TrEMBL record:
It is found in: Cell membrane; Membrane. Gene3D superfamilies: MFS general substrate transporter like domains. This is Nitrate/nitrite transporter. The keyword Cell inner membrane does not apply. Residues 23-422 form the Major facilitator superfamily (MFS) profile domain. InterPro entries: MFS (IPR011701), MFS_dom (IPR020846), MFS_trans_sf (IPR036259), NO3_transporter (IPR044772), NO3_transporter_NarK/NarU-like (IPR004737), Sugar_transporter_CS (IPR005829). GO terms for cellular component: plasma membrane.
Length: 436
């Protein structure tokens, strides 16, 4: 029978009972709100473009800036999770980042807007804390599923934002404000929500099922606060294999979110509304697809070990790469939608499978491993963004290149031995008592 201060062996998504499930729900909700702050400007960019007189090149730089800042932020935040604890780290991140979200409306130039977009991009590091916190709250048998569900539901914020922020903007227009003022006021809403939720998160979550880092017995606290965790994570080749893998799945997901509507609009002569709906379908698959990846990875892991999880991830990436290449060559909108849904399923399952492996690379450096791997997703997005910014290749050609690159990464992942033993086995790990 489970004790109240142990990682849970079951995920009951309808339960809020106990610190583990309460933390699970508050964690994905926090990540969901962070997406509102992170991508709240995206559906308003047509208004911002007119108001600030932005060029296509400047918009491209802004898109890249929105994900570039997250690369370094995720590595730093991962280290803070290991040393400071996820509860304080998440509350501080939401509280601090709510400031640029609320005040971005004060800018009136491209340079100022670019700097604010960089600052807001830091909130994308919230994903690392989300995965860390669910990793320590659930038993190794179910941790992949828990990570995938929390990550997937949080990612839904990206899709919902595209629907809600225009409504908030329209509300201010209805109240009599001009468009150039309404978009600025609209961004105050997600900023205030983030600030309020920072206090809720600090008040109602714990660092571990046993309590907060500063409340635990000295010996146990020291076993969790690992010195040099970033170096430990960086020296392990498995960390970098997962870094590449996450760049090939989540990195491409962010890129596709940014380009999908425009691609359908220009290539298949759809209306903006239809293009938006088709692009939104891609994002809404996070409701279940990432979770499926985590569930399958956990099942494969129980039967074939970590090596099995690694091979599953490689297979999903290979299928994703093939699907993207087929999508790029689609001659009709029907074929494009079908191939998009297919590669989206493999892509989002790969997201879930990646973070079903992350907690087991080194249990003494979960935050740092999660941070480096999470940064890989944004590095992938930045590199892909340059492809779509290029004037010498078409969007279809860019997708073909991306598909080929993903296939190469799949081959690399397939060759990595994820069953490698950890060099340091702690007396007490984040998953509870270490196995003999």
């Amino acid at each position: 029978m489970e004790t109240n201060n142990q990682p849970l062996e079951k995920l009951n998504i309808f339960s809020f009972k106990g610190v583990q499930m309460r933390t699970f729900h508050l964690t994905w909700m926090a990540f969901f709100l962070c997406f509102f702050g992170w991508f709240g400007l995206a559906p308003l960019m047509t208004i911002v473009k007119t108001d600030l007189g932005l060029t296509k090149s400047q918009i491209g730089n802004i898109i890249i800036a929105s994900v570039a800042a997250t690369v370094i932020a995720r590595i730093v935040i991962g280290k803070l999770c290991d040393s400071w604890g996820p509860r304080k780290t998440y509350a501080a991140l939401m509280g601090i980042c709510s400031i640029p979200v609320m005040t971005v409306g004060l800018v009136h130039s491209y340079e100022g807007f670019l700097l604010f977009r960089l600052a807001i991009g830091v909130i994308g590091a919230s994903f690392v804390i989300t995965q860390y916190h669910t990793s320590v709250m659930f038993d190794k048998k179910i941790v992949g599923t828990a990570n995938a569900v929390a990550g997937g539901w949080g990612n839904l914020g990206g899709g919902i934002t595209n629907m809600v922020m225009p409504l908030i903007f329209a509300g201010f227009i209805g109240a009599g404000y001009l468009p150039e003022t309404a978009w600025r006021l609209a961004m105050i809403v997600p900023g205030v929500m983030l600030l309020l939720f920072a206090f809720l998160y600090y008040r109602y979550t714990k660092d571990t099922p046993s309590g907060n880092f500063d409340e635990l017995p000295v010996a146990h606290s020291r076993s969790l606060k690992t010195k040099g965790s970033l170096a430990i994570a960086a020296k392990d080749p498995r960390t970098w294999a997962l870094f590449l893998a996450y760049g090939a799945c989540f990195g491409i997901e962010i890129t596709f979110d940014n380009i999908a509507a425009l691609y359908f609009f220009e290539n298949f002569d759809t209306s903006l509304a239809v293009a938006g709906i088709l692009a939104g379908t891609f994002g809404f698959m996070n409701l279940f697809a990432r979770a499926v990846g985590g569930i399958v990875a956990d099942k494969v892991g129980r039967k074939f070990g970590m090596m099995g999880k690694g091979r599953l991830l490689a297979l999903l990436l290979a299928l994703e790469g093939i699907g993207i290449a087929i999508f790029a060559q689609s001659g009709s909108i029907t074929a494009a939608v079908i191939s998009m849904l297919a590669f989206a399923m493999f892509l989002k399952m790969a997201n879930g499978a990646t973070y079903a492996i992350v907690p087991f690379v080194n249990r003494k450096a979960i935050g740092s491993v999660s941070g480096i791997v999470g940064a890989g997703g944004n590095v992938g997005a930045v590199l892909a963004g340059f492809l779509f910014k290029s004037s010498s290749i078409s969007y279809s050609q860019a997708f073909v290149y991306i598909g080929a690159a993903i296939a190469c990464i799949a081959a690399i992942v397939a060759l990595v031995n994820f069953d490698k033993e950890e060099k340091m086995i702690p007396e007490t790990s984040a998953f509870g008592t270490a196995e003999a």
